[in-house]
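Good morning,

Attaching, inline, the backbone tokens for the sequence recovery test we're adding to the shared suite. The designed sequence is right after.
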């Protein structure tokens, strides 16, 4: 079905338009000229009135005054300020609330959920997706559905960010999607997220496990039956396709469908029509089909166990959810989330998990994936009461923890190599020196020393690799290797945070100079030897707001007075609305609250094209 915005406006005009007033009102919160021009072009020539608000801080007043039918927020405009976005969407409670996502950024999917967005649209904006969304606004504004358990905890690892990025791209489409992954990784959660942010959100989400239903009953389960169709069919029964009409049908373990039923399913997907078992009347349905399987369907096709034509019909897009042992960054955040959920149900605070227990969790292979982790958290909650969780409270992880990630993966590695791998992988998972040192059972001083040693070794290796090219001398190659790393000036008076961020950014590929106050920062900005480039500013500045001798806001103002367009990121443990507004007015690219989310910091730097 196609939609025309003029037709939508005219149909609304007959229903709700007061005399002399526009049929529909949309408040668009966007500071980017390209986004505004795109939306303006889409709404031009219709009876829809668009109110553009460049500053998100002014949006709530505009929404209260206009009471719009739609509110569209450019995610790049509000940054990752969940509180501000939630306030805007709360003010627009009676409107359809749309979030434009700055793709690629899988983190935004969980932000959209946390702020209860009605729909998400990836940028660059697709005209068809916007038209379909506005055309379906009435059913979207019906009674709200059950909240989806989609914690922001699930997007720490790069693999899960890619999953949520694909969810964002596919949610506004009706295309069929196959979700592949091992048992227990959360395939149904991904399917529910696809439904949650689609124009079918207010329609039903119907799930059926194709492997759990006997083959003799599966056809009736999917398509329904008429009275007397078989022995025991004492009344007419609707199938899952009928129940999912207007919404989403999720076929879990679709790879276990028998071949005979695959043929009938193919016909339904092609024609959107079918007959109940034992019936003659043809029924039409409007259903989006999502599928999931732990099998490799390409291999099943080659073996003749899955129809090739059905495979290409259901797999317009494929989303693979990695097993938990390949995304260890998610283990501890998920563990804490499950503990919090379980403790909340019992009306008590979540117990603390000891360092040795957390270390055991990171070492375990988790063959049962997220489902096993959730069961382990429930097991621990039953045992501990109010005390902290110890390794003995975990359900028999000792034997598995002695196994390696792959058969023979440790054979031939020296103790030095094992130590290096343990430090770098744990540091990547934990994000800070303090947390990494706590998990590994070493001092922060030793960890700092090792990280610096690894950086020196990496730098030496890079120079040797460039020297083998033979195109330049060793000196010029070394200079080139230095120049290609983005240069960051970091100012923070907290010694622990300063060196944690310094090491994190260095390990992320940046070249960092860290200072402890505003006076030292200004001296370094004026020192021509700092970045080895006469008069050139750093590629980015990261600074605390409250520092001795000079505040972060004063520094930002001085940087702008010099005419530098250097991206400046401000950090604060006391970030209030007024501070953030002043920082935005002075041109800060981001205002991050402490404790610093290192993933968010990297995202800000990459969005600002630093590195």
């Amino acid at each position: 079905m196609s939609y025309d915005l003029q037709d939508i406006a005219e149909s609304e005009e007959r229903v709700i338009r007061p005399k002399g007033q526009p049929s529909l009102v949309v408040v668009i919160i966007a500071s980017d000229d390209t986004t505004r021009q795109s939306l303006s072009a889409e709404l031009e020539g219709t009876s829809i009135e668009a109110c553009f608000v460049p500053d998100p801080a002014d949006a709530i007043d505009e929404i209260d005054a206009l009471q719009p039918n739609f509110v569209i927020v450019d995610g790049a405009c509000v940054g990752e300020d969940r509180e501000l976005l939630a306030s805007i969407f709360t003010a627009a409670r009676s409107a359809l609330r749309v979030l434009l996502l700055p793709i690629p950024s899988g983190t935004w999917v969980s932000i959209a959920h946390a702020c209860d967005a009605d729909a998400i649209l990836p940028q660059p904006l697709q005209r068809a997706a916007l038209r379909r969304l506005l055309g379906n606004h009435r059913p979207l504004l019906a009674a709200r559905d059950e909240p989806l358990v989609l914690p922001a905890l699930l997007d720490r690892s790069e693999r899960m960010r890619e999953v949520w990025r694909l969810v964002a791209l596919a949610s506004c489409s009706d295309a069929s999607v196959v979700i592949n992954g091992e048992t227990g990784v959360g395939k149904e959660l991904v399917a529910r997220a696809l439904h949650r942010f689609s124009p079918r959100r207010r329609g039903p989400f119907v799930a059926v496990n194709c492997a759990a239903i006997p083959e003799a009953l599966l056809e009736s389960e999917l398509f329904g039956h008429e009275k007397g169709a078989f022995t025991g069919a004492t009344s007419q029964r609707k199938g899952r396709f009928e129940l999912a009409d207007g919404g989403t049908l999720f076929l879990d373990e679709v790879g276990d469908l028998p071949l005979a039923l695959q043929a009938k399913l193919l016909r339904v997907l092609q024609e959107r029509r079918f007959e109940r078992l034992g019936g003659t009347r043809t029924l039409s349905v409007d259903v989006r089909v999502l599928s999931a399987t732990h099998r490799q369907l390409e291999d099943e096709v080659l073996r003749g166990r899955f129809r090739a034509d059905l495979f290409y019909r259901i797999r317009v897009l494929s989303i693979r959810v990695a097993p938990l042992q390949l995304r260890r960054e998610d283990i501890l955040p998920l563990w804490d989330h499950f503990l919090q959920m379980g403790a909340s149900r019992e009306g008590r605070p979540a117990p603390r998990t000891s360092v040795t227990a957390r270390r055991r969790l990171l070492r375990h292979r988790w063959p049962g994936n997220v489902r096993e982790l959730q069961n382990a958290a429930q097991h621990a909650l039953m045992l501990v009461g109010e005390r902290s969780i110890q390794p003995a409270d975990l359900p028999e992880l000792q034997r598995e923890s002695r196994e390696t990630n792959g058969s023979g993966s440790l054979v031939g590695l020296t103790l030095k190599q094992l130590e290096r791998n343990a430090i770098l992988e744990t540091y990547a998972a934990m994000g800070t020196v303090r947390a990494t040192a706590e998990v590994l059972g070493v001092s922060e001083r030793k960890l700092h020393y090792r990280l610096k040693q690894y950086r020196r070794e990496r730098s030496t290796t890079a120079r040797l690799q460039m020297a083998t090219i033979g195109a330049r001398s060793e000196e010029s190659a070394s200079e080139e290797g230095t120049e290609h790393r983005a240069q960051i000036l970091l100012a923070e008076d907290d010694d622990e945070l300063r060196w944690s961020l310094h090491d994190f950014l260095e390990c992320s590929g940046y070249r960092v100079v860290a200072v402890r106050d505003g006076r030292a920062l200004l001296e370094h900005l004026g020192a021509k030897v700092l970045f080895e480039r006469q008069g050139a500013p750093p590629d980015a500045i990261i600074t605390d707001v409250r520092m001795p001798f000079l505040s972060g806001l004063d520094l930002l103002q001085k940087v702008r007075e010099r005419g530098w367009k250097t991206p400046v990121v401000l950090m604060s443990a006391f970030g209030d609305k007024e501070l953030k507004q002043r920082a935005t007015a002075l041109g800060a690219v981001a205002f991050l609250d402490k404790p610093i989310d290192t993933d968010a910091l990297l995202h800000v730097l990459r969005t600002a094209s630093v590195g």
